[in-house]
Amino acid sequence: MSDPASPRSDTFGPDLAEVFGPSQSDGGPDLVQLLTPEGERVHHPEFDHDFSAEELRGLYRDMVLTRRIDVEATALQRHGELGIWAQLLGQEAAQIGAGRALRPQDYVFPTYREHGVAYCKGVDPLRLLGLFRGVDQGGWDPNENNFGLYTIVIGAQTLHATGYAMGMQRDGVVGTGDPERDAAVIAHFGDGASSQGDVNEAFIFAASYNAPVVFFCQNNQWAISEPIERQTRIPLYQRALGFGFPGIRVDGNDVLATYAVTKAALQRAREGNGPSFVEAYTYRMGAHTTTDDPTRYRLNDELEHWKLKDPIERLKVYLRRNGLVDQEFFDSLDAEAKELGHHLREGCKALPDPKPLDQFGYVFSEMTEEIAAQRDGFAAYLESFEESHA
Amino acid sequence: MSTATTQKITLAKGLNMGLRKAMEDDDKVLLMGEDVGKLGGVFRITDGLQKDFGEDRVIDSPLAESGIVGTAVGMALRGYRPVVEIQFDGFVYPAYDQIVCQVAKYTYRSQGKVKMPIVIRIPFGGGIGAVEHHSESPEAQFAHTPGLKVVACSNPVDGYWMIQQAIAHDDPVIFLEPKRQYHADKAELDESATPEPLFTSRVVRPGTDATVLAYGPTVKTALKCAEAAESEGRSLEVIDLRTLSPLDMAPVYESVRRTGRCVVTHEAHVNLGMGAELAARVTEQCFYSLEAPVLRVGAFDTPYPPSRIEEEYLPDLDRVLDAVDRSFSY
Predict the structure, then answer these.
(1) Tens-digit pLDDT profile for residues A36-54
(2) 3-state DSSP call for residue A153?
């Protein structure tokens, strides 16, 4: 009897057990990497980029500040200031690499974990907290920074991204050859979402219409307690071929590789060459959200293994080894991170609660008579208490 | 009367003309759906539109309802006004999540920063002898969802005007088309007329003894019922609700206060259907005018049956008349 939970050997087609063999734990032979976990710069024949010292320091700074946002928000949740927080610990390189590859005219469709991408798009990190504190459902204007609202339903936003990209095609901002004008969309989602119908439908629509969208999957190995093996029998990036566009697996803990690969994918889309799929192979070092307990479903060894691949540490090693930073850089960054933490802590507590009557606003673009009547009735009811206390 | 602007049309033609007019008036209007292009839709409602407006505006889509609605959300976010066709009522369920969680919630979620001007056209209702999933009446599920507006046309003239009004509206509209009526009756359309506002109900036959509420396919049934009742000496007032969310209740209350009796008929299941909501509201507002409880005539609380017996399932003339009789027995 075969164990239904383990990869099968099939008489038809390749031996799937090989696909999930030990070689995959490091991302497999197709993993694009520019910086090893040991901080060694390596080169890739197809995806490379000549990073300036300033760019490298910038990427490092971005990752440190993104981690600070995550750590502060997690602490705020522990102190009861947030109802819940979706942690990104360990995914800083995947998000900063993707986020920094974007041009201002590109549009982002995030899940609820894209805090680093939001930061890259210029969204005040404080604005991200409202949803998790329960004072709003997205406190930023999506069209101000071209950063969409967080989407809780897994994978739903990949279709919105595809439709938005189809709109860009119709607006003539794809494939014009003008780099200031040409635009693309990036849709973020996780490995769990790859099982959703919507994501697969988004792939089909994007391929069918050659839409300028980059599907950016952060494969962090776990969909709450469900391992990647429960989502797929083949490496995710290989799925793209079946939909008719290229898929590529990049080391999601390597900010340089993530940046280079995403930049190429976005450029391909902007030039009118259609969708592509980027699988950022990474690891969720924290919990799914602050309500989750990963110790119930995964081994500590696994976490220890991935800690050695920490995206921030490897760039730090590289910067130091090559004399690209001095102590003043770290001191200054430390001060900046502290200031950011202060901004989040104080700002979070100062976020105003919505007023009871606010719940009636914006169900529609204009208030309907029916809802206005309910609002007025509730207002009168509330006022009756005030009078009785008077 | 000017003959230049009037013509006799079917509901299918009215909708087709309305869609064409909306596309001419606003180049942000796009049609999306399965078979809406070359074929002109399985009911030919979009006939000829792709030929005249091109494949970028009349978009034949992959066979994926969630994909159609989900990409329409993205199109709307980019500033377009997508009109999507769900081929048949029973096929809307694969798109249900996108409709109730995304289309309906975007404006609320964004605190009004984002509008969602999407029209979801659903040919609905039975009586066409189809196989299962082709004859359903899912309106209550959408009317129960805050953030969606739900309307149902019942005749060619309303079809022409209401589809244009729905497209011009800034909120998402579930647009129900009684498919049994598409090619049934013709009516005179005066394109130069001023239409009534979209979210209003209308008295389509005045009467004094009882009020019959209907929408979509049952409006015709209710009107036949009123004719038959007249020969028995009873005067029924028939109201075509036209809008199911929001409901336009003022004409209903006015009518029931006058007649003292109210019968609601729809093709959907009775349990928790539109009739339940209408009965509750009428009872609450017209309690002291009522001579009898508000009665409901709908489909049974069973799945849609095989089409050979669908006439025994759908509310028909006799069942509505029977309810009127029962109302008078109190």
Answers:
(1) 999 999 999 999 899 999 9
(2) coil
Please give the helix or strand (H or E) that residue A276 lies within, else none. Answer: strand A276-281
* pLDDT tens readout for residues A198-207: 999 999 999 9
The Cα of B309 is separated from the nearest Cα of chain A by a number of Å equal to 35
| Distance of alpha carbon B221 from alpha carbon B215, whole angstroms | 10
For B117, which residue in chain A has the nearest alpha carbon?
A: A365
Which of B63, B71, B149, B277 to mutate to probe the A interface, most A CBs <10 Å? B71
SS3 B326: helix
Hey, are the CB atoms on B147 and A170 less than 8 Å from each other? no
Task: Spell out which residues of chain B touch residue A170, defining contact as CB-CB under 8 Å.
Answer: 30, 56, 80
Asked if the C-beta of B308 comes within 8 angstroms of chain A's C-beta atoms, the answer is no
Instruction: Provide mean pLDDT across the span B229-249.
Output: 97
- A304 CB-near residues (< 8 Å, 6+ apart): none
The answer to whether B101 contacts A153, with C-beta atoms less than 8 Å apart, is: yes
CB < 8 Å from B in window 192-211 of A: 197-198, 201-202, 204-205, 208
DSSP B328: H
Task: Report the alpha-carbon distance of residue A122 to residue A119 in Å, rounded.
Answer: 5
Q: What positions of B carry a catalytic annotation?
A: 134
pLDDT at B72 over 80: yes
End-to-end CA distance of chain B: 48
Q: Nearest CA to B183 among B159, B214, B218? A: B159
The answer to whether B107 contacts A362, with C-beta atoms less than 8 Å apart, is: yes
For residue A102, the number of C-alpha atoms closer than 13 Å in the C-beta half-sphere is 29
Q: Is the ipTM of this complex over 0.90?
A: yes
Residue B81 Cα to chain centre, angstroms: 20
Structural tokens at position B146: 């805050």
Residue of B34, B77, B81 best to disrupt the A interface, most CBs of A under 10 A: B77
* pLDDT for residue B195: 96
Residue B110 has pLDDT above 90, yes or no: yes
CA distance B123 to B136: 9
Q: What share of chain A is helix, strand, coil (3-state, %, to 5)?
A: 50, 10, 40
**Residue tagged 């993707």 (tokens):** A98
Amino acid symbol at A349: K
Q: What is the pTM of this model?
A: 0.95
